[in-house]
Design a protein that fits this description.
Blueprint (H helix, E strand, L loop, with lengths): L5 H48 L1 E4 L3 E5 L1 H10 L3 H34 L1 H9 L5
Helix pairs in contact: 3-4
Length: 129
């Protein structure tokens, strides 16, 4: 067993801290571009749109003050809003029904009718054209 002096132990402890700090710094270095991308292209535009949604914002003249009630009332009175909401809710349901109600049973039927030949065909050809 080797006995070390106190300065030698302190010298050994310093690089460990630097390694820990440098690995933490490297992690931030890898994460910083992604964080900047998310901030610039997602967070800031959402903030700008939120600010524009509660103000009288003309295209070329800019902000003319707050009028959030009028903006949201006109959006709710728009005749195209409710058909769009229904479409937004029902299109995924229709796609799921098509997948489970027509495509999957047809694939099972074709697989049982043609067997290995159809399975080889399915491996060669993409499912969705």
């Amino acid at each position: 067993m080797t006995v070390r002096s106190l300065p030698a132990l302190a010298a050994d402890a310093r690089p460990r801290r630097r390694r820990r700090w440098s690995s933490s710094l490297a992690g931030w270095g890898y994460a910083a571009p992604t964080a900047a991308f998310v901030l610039i292209f997602f967070v800031v535009p959402i903030g700008i749109v939120a600010r524009m949604s509660v103000s009288d914002w003309k295209l070329f003249t800019g902000d003319r003050g707050w009028n959030s009630g009028k903006n949201f009332r006109s959006a709710l009175d728009d005749p195209l809003l409710w058909p769009s909401v229904w479409a937004l809710l029902l299109v995924p349901v229709g796609i799921a029904l098509l997948l489970w109600g027509a495509i999957t049973p047809e694939e099972k039927y074709l697989s049982s009718k043609f067997g290995a030949e159809y399975d080889a065909y399915r491996q060669r050809v993409r499912r969705w054209l």
